[in-house]
Amino acid sequence: MVTFEDLGNGQTKLTFVGNETIEDANESGQLEGWNQVLDKLAAVFTDLAQAK
């Protein structure tokens, strides 16, 4: 499960709850995959903010 919480001042708190330990997620490449997804999501949000 992933939740996003608006903290104000342009900041967002992301909480991710998974079924594996952080070590297992890292070993299986999940952390790298999530980092790639979040980088792409940040780029989309940046583009949307600049389009306003």
TrEMBL record:
Residues 2-45 form the Activator of Hsp90 ATPase homologue 1/2-like C-terminal domain. Pfam families: AHSA1. It comes from the Bacteria. InterPro entries: ASHA1/2-like_C, START-like_dom_sf. Belongs to the AHA1 family. This is SRPBCC domain-containing protein.
